[in-house]
Amino acid sequence: MVNHLIANQNVLFVKLHQFHWYLKGPEFFPLHEKFNELYDEANEYYDAFGERLIAIGEKPYSTLGEYLEHAFISETPYIEPLSSQDMLGILVDDYRVIRDVTVKAIHLAAKEKDDVTVDMLTGYKASLDKNIWMLQAYLGNDALEGEDEE
Ligand SMILES: [Fe+2]
């Protein structure tokens, strides 16, 4: 599951750059900056998760092919223009998918009594919850609005 998170973080990292570059309109300055902050954050967790897997004798995925194969979120070439609202909506959905994987990973790590991984994943989940809330707030929504039944 941590390896799936690594794959997802990479797809997210690339997508956040796509939005950072292609964004247009009156919200350009705050969102260009925000997307930068979010891909820096994704990159930090990606590295921490890979290093954690190595430290416990596992093998993190380390190629773009593996990332695309094992991510649960998807990417799209930038052909049709997206509004900032579209971009934020896509990110809320992606962060929710990643959060669900994170919750599963926390339960599995707890079952294995791997406290360090539980701790790392719990910190990550807090950051995902916060990102979802903030993106939703920017869209004028409550944090949990539009969430699918789980
Ligand atoms: Fe940039």
UniProtKB/TrEMBL annotation:
**Member of which family?**
Belongs to the Dps family.
Q: Name one GO molecular function term.
A: ferric iron binding
Domain of life, per lineage: Bacteria
Record's Pfam families?
Ferritin
- Species of origin: Planococcus maitriensis
The identity of this protein, by name, is DNA starvation/stationary phase protection protein
Which residue numbers delimit the Ferritin/DPS domain? Answer: 3-141
Gene3D superfamilies in the record = 1.20.1260.10
Q: InterPro entries under this entry?
A: DPS_DNA-bd, Ferritin-like, Ferritin-like_SF, Ferritin_DPS_dom
